[in-house]
């Protein structure tokens, strides 16, 4: 069912939009700068009342004032996402100011770059606390409201560094990989309650988080720096925001997806399951030497499927073994 069409201004030109968010309420964590700021402003332009959450109070308040100057509704939240109390306070502000929560974009992040051998547990846990625990702490109280109302849209922020990381940033990679797993689990649990959860891997560049991080030698290698430099002029918040707007809308009926966006490109990132190799005789375990001989076949990606859940993997294995599926 499509939203009614409305007219908004985009790049100074009136454009018909099927996304009418009038009356909806959104929480954007890390909303004071860069991507978060862009999401706040774009959703507010489309009629959403926005809770701009950021521990940088000046930045959050500046976004709120910008939205209000354009006739939108917004309020600043300065609570941390990294504690249960902070998460509850953020959601409580949305309810107190605007009555409910329809949309949540978990965007807040931090970074402690460095080689794994030199990383402290404090730095490792500090990153997980904001990215992964932060997503939990804000989502859980918002989830209760969405479940009761039978409607909700949640966008998690992952990263390419979490699904195919390069050298360094192991704490960041761990947190962002966890975000993908959390997204899939919540999507499976939330669909029957009208809650749709998807993850984005944004390529926006120039965020304060990455600019203040210590450089990793591997990121200077030609395989990374070459394409990154080519894309840099086209990386922008505006190139990512359209995907977020769609995922936040009632028009989006997809859930559990991980999607990449940046520089004018959009695509899906997924975990696939190869056809693999089956032992010659069912019930007779393979020897390690056999696994070694067939390893190229095991990892060959020419034929694969994309499981929707763990049960799909069981079905896939049973079918490859020629077993009847009840």
Poorly predicted regions are 9-16
Rg over CA atoms, rounded to whole Å, is 22 Å
Can you identify the CATH class of the largest domain?
Answer: Alpha Beta
Please report the total strand number as a whole number: 12
Mean pLDDT, as a whole number? 91
Q: What count of helical segments does DSSP give?
A: 12
- The amount of helix comes to 40-55%
Question: Largest beta sheet, briefly?
Answer: 8 strands, mixed
Provide the domain count: 2
In the CATH hierarchy, the third-tier topology of the largest domain is known as Rossmann fold
Strand order of the biggest β-sheet: 5-4-3-6-7-8-9-10
Shape: globular
Helix and strand composition category: alpha/beta
- What series of H and E elements makes up the topology? EEEHEHEHEHEHHEHHHEEEHHEH
- CATH architecture tag of the largest domain: 3-Layer(aba) Sandwich
Distance between the termini: 35 Å
- Taken as a percent bin, the fraction of beta residues is 15-25%
Any idea what the CATH superfamily of the largest domain is called? NAD(P)-binding Rossmann-like Domain
GO molecular function: oxidoreductase activity
Pfam families: adh_short (PF00106)
Family: Belongs to the short-chain dehydrogenases/reductases (SDR) family.
Keywords: Oxidoreductase
